[in-house]
Amino acid sequence: MKNIDQISRKSFIKASVAALAMPFVSKLNMETKAASKIGLQLYTLRDDIAKDMEGTLRKVAAIGYKEIELYGYSDGKFFGKRAKELRSFLKSIGLNPISGHYGAGVENRKAIGTLSNSWQQAVDDAAELGQKYVNCAYLTPKERTLDGYKSYVELFNRAGEVAKKAGLQFGYHNHDFEFMNLEGIVPYDIIAGQTDPSLVKLELDLYWVVKAGINPVDLFRKYPGRFPLWHVKDMEKGPEKSYAEVGTGSIDFGKIFAERKLSGMTHFFVEQDVAKIPALQAIQISYDNLIKMKV
C-alpha cells in the first residue's frame, strides 16, 4: 500500500505540475507561431541598408523577423548583389525573401528590371533568390491617367503570365490614389475588377486604404481571396494621419486580422515609410506589439 500511495502521490504531483505549466506552454506556442509569420518590407530601413546592408539585415533577424519583402531591384541586382549571392547570405541569417517590389516602368522605359523592360530577367532573378511573389510597387503621377489604368490591365496580366510560368505570383501594391475618383471611375476597381484573378493578386497596404477612407474588410468582401499579401502599417492618431509604429496608432488591426481567411492573406509585412525615431527601433516596437496581438 505504501508503494502504491507513493506512486499515486508522485503521479499526482507530476500531473499538477503539468497542469500548471500548460497555460505558459500554450502562451509560448502562440507567441512562437505569431513570430514565425511576421514579415518586414525592407524599404522601412532603406537609409540603414544604404550604409550597411548586411549589418542591418542581421539586426532585422536578431529582432525576430523571419520573412522579408525586398525593394530596389535594378539591372539584375538586389542591393548590389546577384540573386545567388544574396540568397546565400539571407539563408545564413535565417531570413526568407518572400516577395519583392518592382516598378511599372511606363514613364521611364530605360529602367531595367521593370514590368516594361527586362521583366523576364527580373522574374528569373526573383525565382533564383527564392521569392514567391513579384509586385508592382507604385505608379508615378504621370502613370495615373484613366487611359493608363485601362492599359495596365493588359500589362499586369502579361506580367502575371511571365511570373506564373516561373512558378511565382504577380501582384499589385496600392497607395491611396487608386481609390480617388478619376472621371467618375475608381482606378482600383479597374485593377482589381478587370485583371485576371489567377494572374494578378493584390497586396493590400492597410494604411493607405484606411487613409483613403476605405474599410479594408469591405474590400475583402468585394474581392474575396485576392489579397495574399498585406502591408501592416499603422496611422498616427490625430489630423495629420502620419505613419506610426504598429499597435501605437488608430488602425484596429484586430478586426482586420479577424477576416484574414476572407482576404486570402498568407503573408504580411510590417512597413513604416517614415519614423520619428530610429527605424530599427520602430520595427522593434511594431514586432513586439504584433507578438502581443497574437496575430
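The above is record 1. Record 2 follows with the same two-line structure.
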Amino acid sequence: MLKQVLLLSLATTAALGLQDDARSHGHLSKRFTFPLPQSQGSETLSKPQVIDGEVFDGGMKTYGRGVSCTEGEGGDNDAVFWVQNGGTLKNAIIGADQLEGVHCMGSCTIENVWWEAVCEDALTLKDGQGPFTVIGGGAQKAQDKVIQHNSGGTVSISGFTVYNFGKLYRSCGNCKQMFERHVKIDGVTAVEGKNLVGINSNYGDTATIAGGVCASNVDEICQEFEGNDTGASLLRPAADLVIVASIPSLSLHAHK
C-alpha cells in the first residue's frame, strides 16, 4: 500500500492557531475588523495593466475594472493586473468591481496588496516555476480561493491577512497540466474560513507553516485532495489521517 506523507512543519507549535486553539480563541473573530488601508484615489482600467518585469508602485490607490462580480469564472482578460516574469506589484488596493484580481505570468512578488472583495480568485499564479512571493497585504470576502496556484514551483506567503474566506491557498486540483507544488506560510492572520491550505497529496504537494500564524474560526488548517489532469471532480482522499504531534514539529501522515 502506498503511503503518502505530508509534513507540516511548525517553527513554534504554540504560535500556530490550529483547530482546537482557534476555537478557544473564537472571540477574536467576533471583534475582528479587516484592516483595509485608506484608499488614496481610484482608477478604473479598461483592460489589464501589464507589469513587465519591473516594479509597479500603486501608491495605495484602488484599481478595478468597473464590473460586478458574477458567479461565472473569468479569464486572463478579466484581470486587473498581469504581472509578467520578474515583476513586482506593490502598494495597491484591488477594488470589488472586478472578476479576476491579479494574474502572475511567471515569477512575481506581490507586496502590500489588498483586495476589498475577492470575486473568482484574488491572485492566480499562471505560469513558470516561481518563486512566487506574497508579502503583507490581505483579502476578504472570498467564497472560494484567495490564492490559486496553477503553475509549478513554490509560493511563499508572509504577513498576509485573510478574512471570511474559503481557502487561503489552493493547489489547482484539475488543471490540464499538473505539477508538484509547494507553499510556505508564516506570519499569517486568518479569520473565519474553511481551509487555510488545500493541496494534492498524490502529486507530491507540500505545505510548510512556520511560526506566527494565527487562525481563528478556521475549519481545517490543511486539506488534502486527490488531484487529476482530466478535469474531473475532486476527491478528498479516502484515508485515515493519523496525527502525531510533538514540539517543535507536527507531522500529518496520510496512509493509503
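Helices lie at 19-24, 27-30.
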